[in-house]
Structures
1.
Amino acid sequence: MLDTTLDSLAQFFRSFRRTTPFPVEILLPGLLILFAWPLLRIWLDDARTTFMVAFVLGMGLRLAMKSRVMIARTRAQVSAPVTVALIMLAGPGALGLLIWSAEPLLCQRFLSLYFLFAAALYAIDVVDGSYAINRFRWPQPSMRGTDAAMTRVMVIYNLAMVLANETLIQQASQTTWLLYFGLLPLVSNMIRTALVRTVQEGYGAGA
């Protein structure tokens, strides 16, 4: 049991060395926040307002970059009117609510709620055994056979991201959290890629 666990961890860390270059779009939210924060801090001279403006810029850019993929995936499952309603609610609706609240802590906790919601969806998939999210997210034939393992891994991953975010909220400054938020697409992409490769090598078709 211990040998199997250690071997899986070794495969996981080796996966980072095989990670392919990421599109520059993944880095853009982090770069925007990195360069905008000091300028906004000088211009606005108020930490709360600076945080909100930097957060909205990073969040808005991330939603804009993901909008086409989100619309295509949602449209494949539901009708056009429902797609419009869901996208507006999850995108501009959520962002508008955060802007209206003007509360930095709510913006930080929103990220925890996002990962907690994702963990709950994967947990439901584990309970009912459908693994629908995993099959939708990774439809490749090589991923068949990994559904049960990958779904459980994603529950753990999302709960770990909740813990990481809550720890940063309690221990780090708002500046550090903003940089984490900006770089999160890159970090999460790297971790998920390594997790997929590790599970695929252990449970995928032909493993």
2.
Amino acid sequence: MRILLIKMSSMGDIFHTFPALSDLQTQLPNAEIDWVVEDAFSGIAAWHPAVRKVIPIALRKWRKAGWRTLFTQVRQWRESIQESDYDLVIDAQGLLKSSLIARVAGAKKLHGYDNRSAREPIATKLYHQTHYVSTEQHAVERTRQLFAAALGYSLDDMPLTFGIRAHFAHIAKAERKLVLIVGTSWSTKLWASEHWKTLTANALQQGYAVEVIWGSPEEKALADEIIQACPQATCASERLSIQAAAEKLVEASAVVGLDTGFAHLAGALESRTVALYGATSPTKVGLIGAHTDNLSLTPALDCMPCHKRSCAKLPVGSQDTPPCMQGLMPEHVVDMLQV
């Protein structure tokens, strides 16, 4: 059976899809799986052993192209994807754009979420067969259940396995190495620099080697600030590639991060990981697995989770840490690392 998977972004969503691929590989070991994914994440998708071929798509670049260039690029991409004769297409994203891409493949059977389950119910109009999957579950479980429904197998007694650790089998685990992921895309998800410094100092006192991972100039400035306060800590002088960052996360004996793709990657790589949550909720998109913990303020503030990029409890334009994150103390994180 030849299967085409549509799940184009984001980085965290890519990681959330891996357990469903592991299920499929176990149930249908002879299936050939191709995966359509945004070109920026094509290398990540190839990490899973169930994937035969990754098919990059450049939607973000297409949006910026002129109409003539856009038409040419879409036509060329359509011709390339239709070279394969797929038995089944699964749209695991549930958006109008992903359902349109799925139809381009020309398969006789196109499966997706039904109108109670899809993020954009209009997408269901383009599917040949739809499946109800409760939206009250974690994103990982939703994708696993969609795959099981589309391919007719049961998830009973099926362990949750991300399946990508073997790709990094050449990386040895370091003893007492702590990696900190200090950045994220929303300011409301950020942790106070003083908390990072305190956590680093405590970890160093407990015998950890501490390394800070950064991905933007602002994050590099924070990493430098942490290292200035705790000179034994380290960070790379240049921004790491996703592959290089993954190798750091595999090597780590423990990871602390925020609600960001690299924290999800650490969890998918089966490293001991603690993720800090405030404005967003870990219930549906938090880290998952026995080796992970999601830490949020307890008791929760009445505004949590707000899912907002700006904090209503702070003045407009304020760079202060939101109360929901300020209340997460470094001591709590250290305690969780000992579990």
3.
Amino acid sequence: MIALVRYTFTVMLLSQRYLAPLLLFIGLVAVLTSSDTGPLTATYSSVAGAMLLCSVWLTMALTGLEDQPHRSIVVVSAGSHLRVLLATAGTAAVWCLLLTAAGLALPLLFGARTPGLADLALGTAAQLTSAVTGMAIGLLCSRLVFRRQGYALVAVLLLLLAVLLGKGVSPVNIMLTHLQNAPDSAEALVTTSVLLAVAAGFLAAALAITHAITRRRT
């Protein structure tokens, strides 16, 4: 599995498809947090929103790295479709962890703040909640599920709107609302950690659905 993740990560690097979501993330964080003088709970809420968009983009880019013949060769070499799919999700998780580190540091560079341990833990949990949810959306709207990219784009937009704007529909919406009103990071950390676990369940379901569709088509 580690070799598969390393292979997928290398292919992503060589393809340079990571550049667009990476630059989008840095740009969004810079715009949303550079003039923000409020509490870090609200700041990391904005960063988590940026993470959601970029994790969707990264995951869809990863699933579309290879055409069907090349993917079939990788599946045969790996031994199963599931291993390749898990390697894709693992690679997306690695990229999201790198973005999470940037999302923690950039708001501190743009503003004069001294974060506590609870602030950093909350920022990490909030970004990971968005990242895991975005990975689930990216898998469900990938080329593995939608052969026509126009349909995939419509599905992405609808799911993002539901996740961001639907009251109580997703852990991301609940988390962002809670972070905007939370008095301090320590209080918000418990709720955010629970929502991260819920988002992980969404990702597991997305992996199962994507795998089932992939197996049926092959």
4.
Amino acid sequence: MNDQKFFDLSAKRLSGTITPEEELELTNYLADQPDQNKAFQELERHWNVSGQLRLKYENDPQTAWEKFSQLKSDHEPKTVRWVHFAYRLAAMVILTIGLGFLFREFGKSEPFYYATFEGETKWVVLADSSRIRLNESSLLTIDGDFNEEQRNVKLKGEAFFEIARDETRPFIIQTDKATTRVLGTSFNIKAIEKEPHVEIYVVSGKVSFSTEQAELILTKGMAANFTKESNLLALDTDEYNALAWHSKTLKFDDAPLDKVFADLHEYFNVDIFMANDKIKNCRFTGEFKEPSLNEVLKVISISASVSFTKENNSYTIQGEGCSPAN
């Protein structure tokens, strides 16, 4: 029995939809493969956690998703092989609270939810043919009146948008206190709750990025950020890697190494420390498609005459560094 079938049968048993024949098949499999009992127990534990959230937040799937996202970081399964399946099980419960099941027509009064967990990305196609790719650990809420007079969604996390053009119905994305309004374009929004900024990068078309106090009009290649604490909007520069998670490409154009290391931290989720403060003054140019961290660091070490050492999930960069640019 392969992993996918094991997951499917486990999900049916836990949801009470398994047939007698399938129950016998799963029981025999677990008897023949006793090591898989631990995997099933992990799936069952996550199912129970998400089920408790369903009972507690039956009228609020968004809160259920947020609570489960917090719980999963404190209860990481020891059998890493089953992490993805465990989170899928939980999502099956949470995303169907009060909605029937995952498939429904738009235009109903209830909102609709798409969620991704750690290590997962997902393409979503909306009723207007717009396409949205959710980055990991993100939540997209589709307004219940979507596809009528306006197209309204909410985002927590990060997503790449390809919006179908419609002159009569703007597409509006609400992220914390910032609002993005478009007619038809492609862009990336990063709106992670624990981070101090909401960031946007425009790939094509024209985008209105605004708060109650101010508005910025952005076109192709432009980037901006909203600072939550001060409620300030500002243009960004050198945001070549805003789409790195989506394009799987890292690009640097005469970038200072502190900026390079910040982008590497974002892409690879590792900590990078500079042993000498002058290292940040060195500059680097390069482009990497489907990069590995070791590959990038080796090229940087040759180009900037630095070296690096690894300890656990952290890297230390050593070298003489460079003088500040004039």
